[in-house]
Amino acid sequence: MNEYNNQILIIGHRGAFDSAPENTLKGFKKAIELGADYIEFDVHASQDDALVVIHDIDILRRIGNEGFIENMTLEELKNLDVGEGEPIPELKEVINLAKGKINFLCELKAKGIAGKVVQLLRDEDIIDYTIIQSFHIEELLEIRKIEPKLHLAALVPFNEEYIPEWDKRKKMIQDIIALEFPIIVTRYQNVDKNFIHYSHKHDLKVFVYTLNTMRTMKRFIDMAVDAIIVNSISKAKKVLN
Q: Rounded CA gap, 5 and 63, in Å?
């Protein structure tokens, strides 16, 4: 389970996005049942420094009310229903549910939480089964200092824009190569054969997000990306099979 090799990995975007509420224990359990290789999820810190799994910096989209995660306590966050009666889970709850059953692609959304996340991964003995990704490159560099064994993935570009010019995309790849990260993660619109060939030539693995249709999945599988981050695990399994 701890090796990502030449096979194309299926990564469940925020769990099983099309089958259960995103970033919930129900969604992660469904992703395991569907046979994904990894679950992808997002980590923030509450006001009282609890590590919680939710995508946005606030609860507006999920709940309909205003409130920033960093300004709310764990108790306040746990009392919210983010869909189908599911509360916002703590990171340790996600790990306890899924470890030994699936691998983890953990995105650090907040700054300053690297040390706390790494310590929890150590305590739960899942360093070998986890990839940490982030747009915050300084967080990844901090993780490298404190736990060199963790696989690190750079999310680029920071504003998630589409970059049509090859020279700009090539420069983006070169920047990640220079930082010696093993994985680059970007939206699928930025990836073509040149992107993959140049990355692989420099031993850089390419993860693409977020694929929705079987046609799009097949296109990137045929181009030999290393992982597809998908909303429908069942569709991805059909294409790969």
A: 39
